[in-house]
Design goal:
By secondary structure, the protein is α/β, with parallel strands linked by helices. 26% of the residues lie in helices and 19% in strands.
Amino acid sequence: MSPVFPMLTVLSMFYYMCLRRRARTATRGEMNSRRAIESNTRALPINVEIVQYAKEVLDFSSHYGSENSMSYTMWNLAGIPNVYPSSGDFTQTAVFRTYGTWWDHCPSARLPFKRTPPTFCSQDYVELAFEEPVYPTAVHILETYHPGAVVRILACSANPYSQNPPAEVRWEILWSEAPTKVNGPQARQFTPCIKQINFPTNLIRLEVNSSLLDYYTELDAVVLHGVKERPVLSLKTSMIDMNDIDEDEDEEKYDCGMDTLNKQFSIVTLREWPTNGYFDKLPYELIQLILSHLTVPDLCRLAQTCKLLYQHCCDPLQYIHLSLQPYWARINDTSLEYLQSRCTLIQWLNLSWTGNRGAISVSGFSRFLKVCGSELVRLELSCGHFLNETCLEVITEMCPNLQELNLSSCDKIPPQAFNHIAKVGSLKRLILYRTKVEQTALLSILNFCSELQHLSLGSCVMIEDYDLIASMMGAKCKKLRSLDLWRCKNITESGIAELASGCQLLEELDLGWCPTLQSSTGCFTNLARKLPNLQKLFLTANRSVCDTDIEELAANCTHLRQLDILGTRMVSPASLRKLLESCKDLSLLDVSFCSQIDNRVVLELNANFPNVFIKKSFTQ
């Protein structure tokens, strides 16, 4: 046979791989990405493109605004733009609760879970429903202030308006990228190049990471472009990047690892190899240490190689700390069932964002905790909308050693269910942000959980009398170090006095957007004098904060690291200079919308105190 034919065969295979690569996935990044070189796709036959704004906001993890208002809330993402193309800080936009790394450097900061895959960096999310299911051709995100937070866009196969829920819910990543630093806070239309999917969707999810931002990102609207009929690609490729082949293989490995997670956990038949290489000559502990650096999907794959590594990968010591949040889209009852035998010694468990739309049932969650809950110390369940009263009852019964419980944004739990938490007397951290906890249940929790050190009650709108709650904290929670009362509507100087007198170990206090607190009552002066250990104090949007309060902080709270006095009209540059000179550890000072602090003052303070990030927001 002519030597030409083998060469033609090789070239044919190479060309087939390249075409398969281009047909299976879209280019990554924006249109100017290196991967997009000379790639030209066109849909055949031509469909009429449908352009639609979000009809409804279905779910989200956090927002800056109030539960009873539209200002700075995620609900502003529904409908046509309110602000774009204007730039600046506007109340009509959607804003998440945090930005930057400041929240990682305060007393309430939590230790991260190990084994988080490098491709997962999401901190918050919002899910949007559109009127018509389409095959997406483009997604436009209108960002009006400090853009660059969006790191992932996903599409769901489930139609939120369908009367018949599907047997299987699929999520596909349309686009993802690591966080990037965008130069300047100006508005932009962000249009990444998205991957083509094989099902129509009218449910889009944005995931964000604001760690590189200098201030809160603000989103105005999301536009979904798509066609009703599935497009067939016609490809013209004049240049192939060899690195694309390797990237494709890595992506397939990751998808395979999670798509077949349940299957891999259940595998019991392994190949018979004559030897285990050199691994059987290593100490057991050393192999365990090496494997501790692998992600969960990697452990699943490695378990299929030989019996020795199967034994190591299934050892409960590998699952002392387990975060399933990065795999939220694929975790279900079957996953938990297969993990049970491996998690008998688990101490930290992160199930945040998992289980929604029926993926995890109450019975499946209960079965897992009955087997694996006895050693649990930390349980993260943020945005777990499958949770109900039965789940909380099981947690309190099966987790006697529990010290940390995160129920942030679990807004489907009924109010009476929170009474069960009072049974966990060992609790040191409790996060109830955006839950329906009521006053009676919270009083019971505070009475019986006297070991509490960190408590978050931000945006808990069903509590009628925060003064009574503060009085109970002062009487029972002497070890409290951080307290979040963000947007509590009725705490007064009386409650603050009780709190400051009883909880003198407080290092962090968030009283942002608490309109009933007035500086003229002496409440802030009282805080400064009785809480000398304060490192973080947020008095956001309290118009009455004055020079006297700032000077008291400078005199008594010299360990202060973060101070937010956004919106005050009563603070002068002179008092801020005293504060900056006294508090040597201060790293964050937010003076946005402080009428006496103009840009000239901020520039002067920045020059004299370069180690302090002084934020001055604006509106155009």
